[in-house]
# Entry
Amino acid sequence: MTVSIKDIAKAVNISYSTVSRALNNSPRVKLETRELIQRKAVEMGYLPSAIARSLVTRRTNTIGVVVTKITDLFFAEVIQGIEETAVIRGYSVILTNSDGKPDYELAAIQTLRERRVDGIILVAACASTEAKQQLFASPEIETPIVIINNVHQQHVGYSIETDNLGGGQVATQHLLDLGHRRIAYIAGPSSEWDSVERQQGYEQALQAVGLALDPALIARGNNFAQGGLIAMQQLLALPDPPTAVFCYNDVTALGAMRAAYAVGRRVPQDLSIVGFDDIALAPYFEPPLTTIAQAKREMGEKAVQTVLDLLAGEPVVEKWVLPSTLIVRESTGVFGGSKT
Amino acid sequence: MTVSIKDIAKAVNISYSTVSRALNNSPRVKLETRELIQRKAVEMGYLPSAIARSLVTRRTNTIGVVVTKITDLFFAEVIQGIEETAVIRGYSVILTNSDGKPDYELAAIQTLRERRVDGIILVAACASTEAKQQLFASPEIETPIVIINNVHQQHVGYSIETDNLGGGQVATQHLLDLGHRRIAYIAGPSSEWDSVERQQGYEQALQAVGLALDPALIARGNNFAQGGLIAMQQLLALPDPPTAVFCYNDVTALGAMRAAYAVGRRVPQDLSIVGFDDIALAPYFEPPLTTIAQAKREMGEKAVQTVLDLLAGEPVVEKWVLPSTLIVRESTGVFGGSKT
DNA sequence: TTGTAAGCGTTATCAA
DNA sequence: TTGATAACGCTTACAA
# Structure
């Protein structure tokens, strides 16, 4: 049923090796036979088999991506960046979901390797550091692996990160500049290193102006709005609640705002909120969210580029740290703004 | 470098066909040699080549997905449904982005076919109806194609849809029940048939209670919050503005709410809003959004199931229409609620 | 229970 | 400029 190179060869009565050359536009075949063959190919509805080609070229032109959660808006934008640059470079993307489970992640990598993907990109790699080290150190270093947003502290292999520390500092500094002194941090999952780094930035900013750290002002959220909501409820129940909150990410911030509104606190008059990520919906939150933007698409782009460079044997930078930038919108206001 | 079945054969001094059988747990090989071979395989770090296997089995255990926009929360959840059920069934997913461009979509399908995916799922297929008909009618009907949310009216091939008409009716009826009489509809892109169907549901609900349709109450948005925002501004500028708005989707609703807030209108006291989709963030909007839920994951599941059934030659239903259900939250209130 | 050999659809290396 | 032919790594009759 599927027409192959041999069928075409038979149809035009030429050896199939010549057909192969003609189809690949090799200059080593006479123009007119080349055209004849190509015409016949489309006429017969020929579709080359990438599978067969891969077997001999040992390249699949495929990049495997494993992500912890596809529906996370931040990841979705990173993946978009990956997919777009991959396609431009002639690669396809195999996407798998690890659901944040290290063993799923490892299993997914295994599957991708069986499929002989040319490279693997881990978005928010959650496998243990040892497991990751093994991935990179293994004798079959064949498949390049690049990590976007390592979940753990220790750096292994090639990675693309955001300047979380700087982002945390800038966010906190912004709140300090507005006159806030009781500033809380709603963290992400305890396991995530990016949350720790953002918290470190927060702490450094506070200490830089001589403010003592109050452990009561650190609440733990998760990767969902619900986590931000609950954390915020706890903060608001404090005897001396914060007047401003820096959140692990935008979704957390959304949950936090919801909790504030639910008890009649207004943002930013009564409470200032800063997020992280700058997801596409952030400008439409009520009020539009002040946040720290990550270079989401660029992360995807850089990851693909790194994989391709690795494949080409070109020099690559081991660890990219992309800048995070403050985007001031309306969820932050001067301390005491409610009195105005 | 990569160890193959032959390397193992050599290592244990057994023919490689036996090795193949042993690795596939064929009962046709003595238990002890099977164990010997399997032990040796892991010892040598053998990773089967899915490529080589596919070449002979003519199955890649791969499903190609082409989606118009990965970062759309609705699509992301559908894709999650696809990916999860695919993995469970032993399939991998190749994801491509069409960016809503028909020619990209067709090109993506072409690529997927070259990769010999076992089936293709089009999420919000945007190619022209003729192009789609050709896809289904083509002589090489080999690769099953299933469409989730056809963008056009005409039904072709196999598809999974949501009950858009019913959803539009229920949403509008909900607003009517609350006493609203001037109800607007903010549509999606004019090209999208689902928006047309939702609008039809809206119109039917109005007509059922004897209300005349006012063309001024139909505004056009797009797939982004910004479209909802602009459309809402237009509606609010009307001499006799609506007291309630049914929106093409949740993101549109978010933009609409933003526009309302920006001019001091409160939701739901001054204006009731209903969305469509029930994306994960909808409960955290300010106020939490009343909306029509689509069975997003199920759509993905059903699509994969249909592809697999088609592959197995089993009977499949040509067109699934999944129910849409009203989720009442806080963005809708009784007409005149602002006076309370 | 094991081995031999053909073949999947290409590319690539030689010769001609 | 073209043609044989050998891979690529596997599955699968068919034989032994």
